[in-house]
Amino acid sequence: MAGRPFLLVSKHSGHALSDPGSHGAPVIVNTRNENDPRQLWYEDGSTGTIRNQANQLALHVGGDNILYLTPAEHGQDAQQWKVGKDVVHHRNDKEKVFDLCRGSKDVGAQVCAWKYHGGTNQQWEAVHLKPKFFYIKSELNGKVLDIEGQNPAPGSKIITWDQKKGPTAVNQLWYTDQQGVIRSKLNDFAIDASHEQIETQPFDPNNPKRAWVVSGNTIAQLSDRDIVLDIIKSDKEAGAHICAWKQHGGPNQKFIIESE
Questions:
Q1: b/e for 152-185, b at 16 or more Cβ within 10 A?
Q2: Which UniProt keywords apply (predicted)?
Q3: Which of 39, 107, 131, 172 has CA atoms 20 to 30 A from the CA of 20?
Q4: pTM score, two decimals?
Q5: What CA–CA distance (Å, rounded) separates 46 from 159?
């Protein structure tokens, strides 16, 4: 299934690449933990970067050759990294790779960019995770977002409906992809706000109206968190339609994320 984040696990130490948790500090390796979003990464094809799922920052090699996290920038050479076979290499120079500094096997070891020599301290495994599915439940009426009629075709409307369990719930289950964008279990499609009523369409990284994320107790547009999903006219009945609207804090814009 598309859209899986991954761990970057050192074959030298078995530890995973991690956000250090302190602003401006070098990236480190830490004890592998698939439930720690600071250790989850994704490749952003639009910027050519590897980004952290917890904070959306990009891996960036500083002037000291040490790895840091900074906001993603188009065309920033220090951020142009790609996961290859057993290595993480620069997109424009495959001889420049991620390297556990001084071959350390310690938790907290820093990572640098270095000329490729094939040592185990330069070898990494991208361990992709299975998506975790969830319901998006309205605080207004306790109903969940549902792809109408279980229709997998592009353009199918998203409505609210009574929550289901088991195999028939596939059109009510969602997951977040490597960019944190919400996608449907039914067909991997994204939420689309190109029309008055919200529908599903294939994900398009160049269309901001097809990129929606969990933002507190709202479902917000990735590019503008003030635009959120809204149950039209605060309709509490099953089959209510959804639109995109400026955030006002009403219960028809608030949702609970509930695990499958």
A1: eeeebbbbbbeeeeeeebbbbbbbbbbbbbbbbb
A2: Lectin
A3: 131
A4: 0.63
A5: 31
Confidence category of residue 3, pLDDT binned at 50, 70, 90? very low
Those residues whose C-beta lies under 8 Å from the C-beta of residue 131, and which sit 6 or more positions away, are 1, 3, 4, 175, 176, 177, 185
- 152 pLDDT band, cuts 50/70/90, is very high
Looking from the CA of 207 toward its CB, the CA atoms found within 13 Å total: 12
List, for residues 52-83, the tens digit of each pLDDT value.
988 889 999 999 999 999 999 988 999 999 99
- Which of 2.130.10.10, 2.80.10.50, 1.20.1250.20, 3.40.50.300 is the CATH number of 6-128? 2.80.10.50
CA angle 188, 228, 58 (to 5 degrees): 65
